[in-house]
## 1
Amino acid sequence: MLRDARSCRYGSHRVLAPKGALPQAAQRLDATPVARENEILCDVEMLNIDSASFAQLRASCSDDPKRIGDAILATVRERGKQQNPVTGSGGMFVGSVREIGASLAGTIALTAGDRIASLVSLTLTPLRLDDVLDVDLATGRVGVRGTAILFESGAWAKLPRDVDERVALAVLDVAGAPAQVQRLTLPGGCVVVVGADGKSGILVCARAKQAAGESGRVVGVVPNARSAGAQLLLEAQLVDALVEADARDALTLRDRVREVAPSGADLVVNCVNVAGTEQGSILCAKDGGSVYFFSMATSFTAAALGAEGLGADVTMIVGSGYAPHHADIALDTLRENPAIFAHYNATYGRTS
Ligand code: NAP
């Protein structure tokens, strides 16, 4: 049962408009930096803007870091949260705990000063930004000075000591994908990962390969087979086959995938950051197979009506960012695979 709206565990007490909405669906949140009894107040240092949102911001701001920073500031000032008005998606933050509300203090393994990453979307996190300090075009990482509120229902992870914070930020942003794929992959099954050489795609390939086992097959789809991520997939044997294709070209994608997986996939995982890849992904699945849309550029309409028009008997799964133990599963994927760890350090780490 919900408590009094003043201290709702889902944060409804922070919703300014519209009436009755929960924070994710809200237009505006109250981001006042004071921890109520069941809230955690954090000082925020870095945002990881989710990839679909960041790709849209880069395009609309002509790759100008200043304009991207200004656009983020404007959204947060207007809405009290970072929710890209075009893609509707957010990201997550890294910072340190400033204050824990009285009813939570002592009940959670967290104390003031702990460094954490949020494991809930910025689209539902009350956020106040004083300044945007820098915008890293290559990774979607944004240095900021500000505060955020975590609700009682909101997940967080203490930053691990053995992983560079910037790498942890990148990995934890997409932690839902490898955990979901681990449990969706059938032993001996065929998994096709579209957008296989990105942040989530590499972790997904590693978990799919492990779960599918010796008799399984993992196919990675990338737009450019010469990318560092694509080379890693081959060299670390995270895929059995690599297909170079633009996932927006549905029929070409299907044909190239069928060359290496003639019966189609038991599971297709969509990890791209661009729109228009729903039908191509659906066509890679076999009848009775599943398509897991992790991408935030996915359109429900395009997927639902597209599958209908194709006469495709597939189960389509909305890519929730949460699964039990997802943070540990994602970070362990690095720890268990030195080649992946090295790639993430080089791509997202302090020296990148
Ligand atoms: P990322 O690192 O930017 O990776 C995106 C991948 O898509 C890259 O491998 C990219 O290849 C590939 N790609 C781009 N255009 C393509 C095309 N036309 N055809 C085939 N592949 C293409 O992104 P990420 O951080 O892994 O995120 C992946 C998606 O998940 C994004 O849409 C993001 O917003 C979403 N997301 C969802 C959740 C959730 O909770 N469901 C959480 C976080 C992120 P190149 O790099 O070679 O261009």
## 2
Amino acid sequence: MTLLYTSDPERGRIWRAIFAAEASDIGFFDPSQPHDPATIRYLAAWAPSAELIASLPNLEILFSIGAGIDQFDMSALPPHVRVVRMIEPGIAAGMVEYVTLAVLSLHRNLIDYREAQKDARWAPIKLKPAGERRVGVMGLGNLGQAVLKALKPFGFPLSGWSRSPHDIEGVTCHAGETALHDFLATCDILICLLPLTDETRGILCRKTLSHLPSGAALINAGRGGHLVEQDLLSLLDDHHLSGAFLDVTEPEPLPADHPFWAHPRIVITPHVASMTRADSAARVLIANIRRYEAGEAMDGEVARNRGY
Ligand code: NDP
Ligand code: OXD
């Protein structure tokens, strides 16, 4: 059993130590170490090149270092290779913090106060109770559900939208394309936590965002490819939308001359909503390799034909 690890060296050092202490039967290599490519059965990577994939004739599983797998070039991956995304508590904890920060900032008018401060303007805005601010999450997976659970105690009316039906206590759940417009009509704050697939690329566009109530705000922590940038700019400029928190853009990094940087109603963060935590992720990976070796289902295995 041999794993090749090709992501950042700092995490690699932590992983190597955990593998040595807790799973010494699994060989742990990085590309700088001499190794026979034919012995590699598992690859842990963020965006492996087609050349690297082609050089591993006995690859069985590609493990993503992160929650997303849209960065993989699936056309370079032989059909029998299984793909597993990362589900570990550090990613969910980071996302919960980021989305809570963004929802509370929007709910408490932080964008307006940031603007007022620039002009030394003392301009209080009447408080709106949380019970009157409807929050909706696109994507009811691992992260969407963690975020909804964290938002519940504030008292926001909560809703969610996913591909297949879900039943989550305290959340009005909608499913499928035909339910999208009804869902959007109930979101004063819309949070995107979808994976990027052929079906979801460009989903945050004028056609869909126009169904949000007037004055609604957007939080995109999914992928930059979900958003049609020009549509967001024109909906903000028309005052149909009141603000946006964007953690993800396309491309990344966002070019220095991009209009998002200077827009007074947009808050940009550089894809930092959450980060894979090295220690917990190493243990999740070891557990998944053990499950696979035992013929059991792996946590986070992706349906390759579905794209997530
Ligand atoms: P999951 O796979 O657990 O959940 C995905 C959810 O999206 C599911 O509820 C799924 O529906 C829903 N979905 C997928 N396709 C559609 C569709 N066509 N229409 C409606 N709903 C759809 O993913 P995670 O929660 O773990 O992660 C979500 C995404 O968050 C990642 O793919 C990544 O892009 C992003 N991310 C961003 C980070 C950041 O730092 N900004 C960090 C980590 C992740 P169903 O339940 O019916 O299958
Ligand atoms: C991830 C990410 O997918 O950091 O984990 O975006």
